[in-house]
Amino acid sequence: QVQIVDSGGGLVQPGGSLTLSCVASGQFDNIYSMGWYRQIPGKEREFVAAISWQRGNGHYADSVRGRFTISRDTAKITAYLQMNSLTPEDTAVYYCYLQNTDRNWGQGTQVTVSS
Known about the structure:
The chain has strands at residues 2-7, 10-12, 18-26, 33-39, 46-52, 58-60, 68-73, 78-83, 92-99, 103-105, 109-113. The protein is mostly beta strands and 115 residues long. The strands form two sheets. Strands 2, 4, 5, 6, 9, 10 and 11 form a seven-stranded mixed sheet that branches. The chain has a four-stranded antiparallel sheet with strand order 1-3-8-7, with no helix packed on it. The chain is globular.
C-alpha cells in the first residue's frame, strides 16, 4: 500500500512563490513518475507537472511552463514543485500523485494567490 502526503500550500500574494512537497511511503514497486494536478471547485482536475522517476525529465502544462519547476529526490521518494510568479489563476487545490502500476493520490493542499 502506498501513502502519499503532499504539503506546502498556503496563501501568497501575486508574484510570490511557494514550494510544494510530495512524500511517498509504503510498499510499492517501480515508480514511473510523480507529479501534480490541480482542481478548482466545479471544474475538472487538470494536469500541472510531472517528472519521470528514472531520468528526471520534467513535463509541464502550458499554463505553468517557465514559472513552475518540478524536481525529485529519489532517496527520499519525494517530489517538489517550485512555483514562481504565481497569479490568482493558480489558486486551486493541488494534488500530488505517484504513478506505478496504479495512480496513487495525496490528500491535496490548498494554494491561494491573492492580495
